[in-house]
Each structure stands twice: as structure tokens, then as C-alpha cells.
Amino acid sequence: MNNNFWTEFKQPIFALAPMEDVTDTSFRQIVAEIAKPDYLHVLMTEFVNTDGLLHEVGRDIVAQRLVVNESERNLLKEKDIKLVAQIWGKNPDHFYKATKWICENYDFDGIDINFGCPVKNVVKQGACSALIDKPELARDIVIATKEASNIPVSVKTRTGVKQHDTERWITQLLETKPAALTLHGRTQKMQSDYPADWNQIKLAAEVKNAILPEIPLLGNGDVFSHQNVKDDLELSNADGVMIGRGIFENPWFFNPDIIDPDPETRLSLLWRQAILFLDTWKDTKNFAVLRRFFKIYVYNFEGAARLRAKLMTVKDIDSVYDLLKENPHFKG
């Protein structure tokens, strides 16, 4: 195994999940700026398709998901936060070649393989969570990725396809000796429609501790508060947690000292992210992507609902500023 940074953290390990059109470099920087020391250890990129990285014509578009601002890079080094590229696909040879290309052209701390995404059009391709029921192909993918990589290779997955199959699946994954495992406590079929089952993560921890105790196992699913973290870790005996949708309810999640930020703080952070987004992407990414973030900052103060509704219609940065400057809580 390559030098495994995953084993060097003070536990519990805190990570932000990879999310499409969410965990780009501008939002990652925002999260890292807020984070308190030892409350954020790992950030991940958006999902990156291995097939797309090997196409000369479409590579530039796919590789947008791997962009890292210099300001983010410097901040992560300063705070000792690791940045991991997450990749997906179904062809072991493509995983090998894409991993080689990433390692030759970027400076990530690790590679993570997506065996968890339950989105139907992805599953129909035989990728991500579909590979839970194709253990031999999944094994070949992990081995090919490890062979091509000079950085640690971890895996993020779910408990099964139609039903929990945790013991079988985790045992098979551990045979490939990944640098770390993250387990979402739902099956593919459950999507996000049912509560995450942390008893399954407990079972996975027991399996891992019996086979490969030196690598960390992170639990994922329904982590919305620090009380969730405490309860989930006590129940499961996992080595850490990965936060996904919880960051939308509280972008200050990784700083427990900030309980209920005032409206001025919320709007200031909204504006900072909008500026970072514009500086990074200019006209290369749809501005509408930003709208999904506005609602996580604009709530719980007088006039918030009205401002939020207006922000959902903006099409450019000037319109955002015009709306914010009308609000008495925004200081510019």
C-alpha cells in the first residue's frame, strides 16, 4: 500500500462526501475556511468518469471536476486537509489509464472509487452501485486503480443492491486492501428514501476489524448534527463519518463552535462563494448551479423567504449583488 494518509488522522475522521455540482473547488474552499482544526480531514471532488477522461474531445469538460484553485490548494496545505479525486466507471483498463493520467497531471492526495452512486442512468451502465453484485469486476477495478496509482486508493460504497449484503460485500472489498472504506448505510434500492441503517455500518466495522483492522472505515448517511456523529459512532464503532446532504442544512458543520450564525455572517458567506464561483468558472459553468447553495445561507431571519425566492431567479452575479445590497443584514 502506498503511504496511507488515512491511517495518520486523529480519530474520529471527518470527511465531506463527493457530490455532483456541489463539491467543486469554490465550495470546498468555503467549507475548508470555516472548518475548525481536527473537524475536517478529507475533501473529495465531484464524481469523475473514467471513460470521459480518456476521450480527447470531451476530456476538458470532464476534467473540470478536477479543477483546484491555487487558493484552495494553499488553504488545504495550511490546514492539513487532504483532497481526494473520486472516479467512477466499469472498465478496469479505463480505471488504470484514467488513474495514470490523473496522477501524472494533478497533485491529489488520494483516489476514491465510487461503488455507491444509485442514480438510475449510472446503474444501467453497470457502474457504481451496480458493481456491488459484480464482485469480480469490482475487484479488478480496485486492483487496476491501485496498480496505476502512486497515492492511496479508497472505496466508497453501499450495503447492497436490493437488500443489505454487507458482510459478503465488505469481505470481498477488503480482499483488495483499499486504503480506506466509506459505507453508506443504505442499499442501492433505498436511494435516500429510507433512514440510513447504522447497524449495517456496525456490522461492516466488525468485519473490517476481523480482516483488516489497520484501515479506517467511515460511516455515511443521515449525519446532520454533531449529536448524530456522537450517536452513530457509539453505535457503529466506525472510525469516522462522511457528511453529505448534512452540509446543505449547515455549511458550518465542520466548526461546532458556530451554532447559529447571524444573518450578516450567512449573507457574507453566500457572497464570498458567489465571487469564488465566478472567479473560478467565469462563463464555463452554468451560473444556475449556484442557486442550490443560496437556500443554505438564506433562512431563519426576517425577509429570508422573500430574498431566497428572488435569488432562485437570478442569472448573473450582478443580480445577486443587487438583491443582497437591498437587505439590511448584508454589509457588502
Structure description:
The chain is α/β, with parallel strands linked by helices. 42% of the residues lie in helices and 13% in strands. The chain has 15 helices and 8 strands. It has an 8-stranded parallel β-sheet with strand order 1-8-7-6-5-4-3-2. Helix 9 links the parallel strand 6 and strand 7. Helix 1 packs parallel to helix 4 and helix 1 packs antiparallel against helix 12. It is globular and about 60 Å long. The N and C termini lie far apart (49 Å).
Per-chain topology:
Elements: E1 13-16, H1 25-34, E2 42-49, H2 50-53, H3 59-62, H4 70-79, E3 82-88, H5 92-105, E4 110-115, H6 120-123, H7 135-148, E5 153-158, H8 166-174, E6 181-184, H9 198-211, E7 217-220, H10 226-236, E8 240-243, H11 246-249, H12 263-281, H13 291-297, H14 304-311, H15 317-325
Parallel strand pairs: 1-8, 2-3, 3-4, 4-5, 5-6, 6-7, 7-8
Helix pairs in contact: 1-4, 1-12, 5-7, 8-9, 12-15
Molecular shape: globular
Distance between termini? Answer: 49 Å
Reported for the largest beta sheet, the result is: 8 strands, parallel
Count helical runs: 15
> What is the mean pLDDT?
95
Low-confidence runs of at least 5 consecutive residues: none
The share of residues in helices is 40-55%
Radius of gyration: 20 Å
Spatial arrangement of strands, main beta sheet: 1-8-7-6-5-4-3-2
Q: Give the SSE string.
A: EHEHHHEHEHHEHEHEHEHHHHH
What is the structural class? alpha/beta
The fraction of residues assigned to DSSP E strands is 5-15%
Total strands? 8
